Amino acid sequence: MLSPVNILTLPLVVPQGWAPLEPVDGLRALLVFIGYPALLFATVVLLVLLPRLVRGGSAAGTDSEWFGGPRKSGDELAAPDGEGSKAGGAGARW
Question: Could you tell me where the Gly residues compositional bias lies (predicted)?
């Protein structure tokens, strides 16, 4: 039967038959931790932008849009033009 100490240190024991650890050089570490993720990121970006580029559109997007900016329609309420003006919307007083 395993004692509690053996159960706690079990993950630290290298199983029999495993090859000894070999050191990893810096170039391979950079390739694994930076190169492969960068390649995966570039592939995803290319797959997202490729249909738009094939259709002839630009990759930058559509025209600028100003949310909440001034509107150019004639059905808006007129702004108040003086102190006693009732134009412009709600005018609650205390």
Answer: 85-94
